[in-house]
Amino acid sequence: MRRVYITGIGQTPVREHWDRSARDLAASSILQALEQAGIDKADAIYVGNALSGELTGQEQLAALIADFAGLTGTEAIRVEAAGASGGAAVRLGYLAVASGVHDTVLVTGVEKMSDLSGPAVEEALATSTDEEYEAIHGLSIAASHALLMRRYMYDYDLERRDFAHFSVNSHRNAVNNEYAMFRRPITVEAFEKARLVADPISLLDSAPVADGAATIVLCSDKAAGKRANSSVEITGSALATDAVALHDRPNPLFLRAVQESAHKAYAQAGVTPKQIDIFEPHDAFAILAALSLEASGLAPEGEGVRLAMEGEIALEGRIPICTMGGQKARGYPVGAAGVYQIVELAQQLRGDAGANQVDARVGMTQSIGGTGATAVTHILRSP
Amino acid sequence: MMKPLRDVGLVGYGAYVPRYRISAEEISRVWKMGEDNLHLEEKAVPGLDEDTTTIAIEAARNALRKAALDPSKLSAVWLGSESKPYSVKPTATIVAEAVGATPHTMAADWEFACKAGTEAMQAAIGFVGSGMADYAMAIGADTAQGKPGDQLEYTAGAGGAAFVVGPKGESMAYLEGSHSYVTDTPDFFRRPNQHYPTHGNRFTGEPSYFTHTIMAARALMDELGYGPEDYDRVVFHQPNSKFPVRVAKRLGFVEEQYRDGLLVPYVGNTYAASSGIGLAAVLDKAEPGERILLASYGSGAGSDAFSFVTTECIARGRNPIPQISDYVGRRREIDYAQYARHRGKLMMY
Amino acid sequence: MSLAKHWRLQQQRYRLIGVQCEDCGAKLLPRRLVCPQCKSHNLQPYSFKGQGMVYSHTVVYDAPSGYDGYVPYPAALVRLDEGPLVATQLTDVDIDEPYIGMPVEMVTRRLREHGESGMIVYGYKFRPKLKD
Description:
Chain A is an alpha/beta fold and 383 residues long.
């Protein structure tokens, strides 16, 4: 296998982009990334996107984006794995380069969500659950996570407010990220008072529906040339799956796919959980971040929330997470989120994270589909 | 008198009443109609996810448990209702599928206003009595609608009752005979695509409810050679709390004979289920060897009268199968706004 | 609106029919082709009794299309007496009543309807046990 470097990144602000479509957002992030990488074409484009058919009526999105970005003719394919679409696209881009099939590829994550709202978006998001046995019962994606959270609270004797620290941390970190959607801090009190969307999950515990696109350029060492010395390297990449439905898992509070993908990635990168300096988890809901910390071996079972309560996830903590705002405060354009995570971690590892800069050599991202049926873990190392 | 060649009876029965109640007082509060309309305490209101199908399914499941019968042995699942969820497509096939009676069975919906349930029972008696079938299920179920502000709104309730008709030897109550009485009397009707029915006010009384009920009941008693004193219990259709009491008295019955079967003050007029729920309540309390008179009424108009005698099996399954009192006692009071929502009177879309 | 996709799941939805593994005895709902415990392919239909306890619960306020007319509604994971978990709505219960461990039983209710002219989908929900 060949070494794989990230030689360029691009991202649009995460917003409700009323005036921009998916192709527009995606192409502008591609142009930024190409410019940064100093190239004008790539061998292939992998587009992570979860809901373009559901939300905008557009399929064959990858060809559309390639053409709009001036890369007509380029191999392009859309990758779908619900919330893990972005991470899965990175995984495919990585495989293409590491295997020697391609030397330079683009991985773009894009989601255009604001064209629909309310129940229509909830319906689209619920397609990441088991349609015949979960969604048909009116379980929204928040409701599925609420079932996990309620049980977790019961098993570990916690209250709803104890989960606030994840959102508080994400919002604090988003203040300094110009690409983030919510650049304002929130308090534990505000978290407690927030309107419920699926008890015990509230608005301030749910990553917001948003539009956005992010792109990375992946190069083999050959293609990267001298840039390899100043580029972040992907040293671990793994994807694992679990039953889509919560009820089909022996223990719903154990994220098996997260554990498997994390452990494979650790093994490949030759690191242990202790060596992870910074972590970008899939914090679509606080409970998912907590369970991810546990399944990834970064917190003992039942201790994920306590890690946040004790401040260990802050920029100055033992394992900083969501350092640029995470899904919660940067915003959650579903299929793009996994690529945003890589972009943000690359910023950190290159020392480009500005006021939120963490002293880090090894970082990890995790992109999760639904309630944990697909999990993609990437481990990155600083230049 | 009608009596099948083969002796039959009720081998199982079951009923269902939804959880929600609105009081007559609350309805009166909205429409300022005064105390004079408070003929009953409250009426049962279906939940947002309930309809005639779901009500019939639970009543049918209770009846099958009482009968301890393999549902695949049912040769018919017949459902009488005026509130079918589909105008075209049998509700009975959904019920038959849900209780496990399909596929080698008959299933159909019956319509005869409030006596559609006993119409199905008459047919089931004939079906089993002729030897064509060993077991047939007759259900009456409704989620009745009354126009807001109308007198009917005080009474139009929801509920279901199901009966498994089978051989006399297995029955909890066997049939002595029945009588049906029908004329063309337009006292109450609903045209296609209309949400609420039209009724003839006082015309629904004397020439309609009273004449038909009394004629059917009296004819059956005469044919059987019985007088009111021969019955332990009587059950009539219960459109309000006055009519069944008045009809009982005119037929010579006294309060202790009709009291246990009079549920309208607590559940309202459950239309096609009304007399069936009354019968189920009576069967819940009856001892072996009691004679019971049942006379339904359906607008349009007609009455079916039946004479049953309970057997040694009458107490079968009283625990743990829910009784009518379990459903009547399970109540959640709602206000008029919630009621309006439950009954689709709010424009949601 | 697909009619067939609901029709083909009727038995599972109306009567909680899953499968039992003939080799290791595992009872599974929903049905599967391969036993997750012993990998056997020898799975036969099994009818669940419909009794269980609440494993976890929620109340949905922001609902997907088709369910927004029912909000707020309680939903749960129910642990059936035979072992499997089932995702379901709770019914005939106030939204603040459910608790982990609450005994519940299966009933058949409307899951949704596809508009005024579309199909009505019926299936299982669970309610507090009516009678011990």
